Amino acid sequence: MDNACSVSIIVPIYNVEKYLYESLQSLKKQTFPVFEVIMIDDGSTDESSEIAIKIAEEDFRFKYIRRNNSGLSASRNVGLKYAKGKYILFMDSDDTLEIDAIDNLYHMAEKEQLELIVFGGVKDFYDVSENIVVNSEICGNTMDYKCKSGKELYNILRKNDSYFTGVPFQFVKKSVIVENQLSFYEGILHEDHLYTFQLIHSVKKCAAISNQYYHYRMRYGSITKGKRFLERTVGFACTFNEMVKWSEKKEGLIKEKEVKKHIDEIWRQTIKYIVFMSKDEMKNVNLKEFIYMTQNIYNRFNIKHYWNIYFPFMRLLHYVYVLRENRWRQKHLK
Question: Which domain covers residue 262, as residue numbers?
Answer without folding.
Answer: 229-332
